[in-house]
Amino acid sequence: MRVRDGLAGFAAAVTLVSTIAASGLADSPPPSAAEGAPLRDPPQVVSHHGVLRAHLIVEKKRVEVAGRTLSALTYNGHYMPPTLRIRPGDRLELALENRLGPYTNLHVHGLHVSPSGHSDNVFIHINPGQTFHYSYRFPDDLAPGTYWYHSHAHPISAQQVAGGMSGIIVVDGLKRYLPPGLRTIKEHVIALKDFQVQGDAIKTKDLHIGASTNRTVNGQMNPTIHIRPGEIQLWRLANISANIYYRVSLQGQPFQVIAHDGNPVDRIWTADTLLLAAGNRFDVLVRGGPPGRTQLRTLPYSTGPAGNQFPQATLATVVSEGPAMHPPALPATFAPRQDLSQATIAARRTIVFSENKAGTQFYINGKQFDMNRVDIRSKLNTVEEWIIRNDSDEEHSFHVHTNDFQLMSVNGRPHEGHGLQDTANVPRRGQIVIRTHFQNYTGRTVLHCHILNHEDAGMMAVLEIVK
Description:
Largest sheet: 7 strands, mixed
Strand order of the largest sheet: 1-19-18-21-16-11-14
Low-confidence stretches: 1-32
CATH topology of the largest domain: Immunoglobulin-like
Domain Plastocyanin-like: 58-172, 210-287, 357-464
Keywords: Metal-binding, Oxidoreductase
CATH class of the largest domain: Mainly Beta
Radius of gyration: 21 Å
Mean pLDDT: 93
Organism: Nonomuraea purpurea
InterPro entries: Cu-oxidase-like_N, Cu-oxidase_2nd, Cu-oxidase_C, Cu-oxidase_fam, Cu_oxidase_Cu_BS, Cupredoxin
Number of domains: 2
Distance between the termini: 40 Å
Pfam families: Cu-oxidase, Cu-oxidase_2, Cu-oxidase_3
CATH architecture of the largest domain: Sandwich
CATH superfamily of the largest domain: Cupredoxins -  blue copper proteins
């Protein structure tokens, strides 16, 4: 990922292209991803007077997705389900009704909320025919940005998410850090989901991560995103797929990152490409280039000799047209800084990701997941430093629930991410160092690889936060 601090290059000209890259569609695909319909943002369910009440029905339905009619696993009958939109300090009352054959549950990915009881408790089993009533109470200082929700039913989370069970959560408040003239800019959800096809259904079993797949934005194949020359838009880039990585680039145009994994940055930073490992999100500002068309792409990416090779694909076509706009300049700084570099460290731990030679079993510290075993105990109101070491020949996407972390270094090189995050890519045969402040909540939660095939095959551990 090429990164530049500050605002240099933000007004770079858009590179125009006349051809559309092949997208590797599965199951007798067309030869290329033809330019599609205008981007449709998901419908929203919005909190009122401090409460969001929602009812999600999990069922298998035939849906229109990427121009095809397929059987999928859905929330409320949609492959791209409603966005849940809340504010810091809100309460979310959510009824999850299971009309599937197997059991399921729900995880609110990245949100700082209790992992116990009827809150973000991933140990719950909601059996067929049952309705479970979740109740989440969010702190007043909940970080604004983009999050997501999905099934965390072990060991079938990959099946359910790959089948379609993932959606977006937005915590409002991010725009307040922008100049007044930019606080009403247009925003888009750019939810990156992929699916493989088996017969007339989205494939859920025997998933091969590197197999040809259909990459969609909000369930659409190569939709068009309209923008005026010079206009600034807020795009909520979110990898809400089960297993694959996205290395996203907008030809000739940099991204201005204002939040990472739902955490506002202290300084806006610029990137030509953004790697969204499984579970990652970036809130970015994009400026419309000169009149014409350009493409939002995912570029070729390899996760290593034991991993997968992801080909280039067109995600969306950006159409710049209409009268030019001249928005105000962006600030050099953004949100208040969160920094654990000078914190007192209560404990240091090493967490090792590994796998067998066949790539069929995955381990954390040599053990496979057991929900009845506590692997790590950490004390509330302390800061710990963890080395996450990868002893395998493929990259892994490290994710921990409840509390976000500061990424301190990658393979021994200091890292400045300008904020916290909840997911980080761990290089093959390499390591990252993170620091976490355990705040507000006690209880049992988990850490795992967010490549869900790996999680389901054992790469998950129980973390208990105690007083």
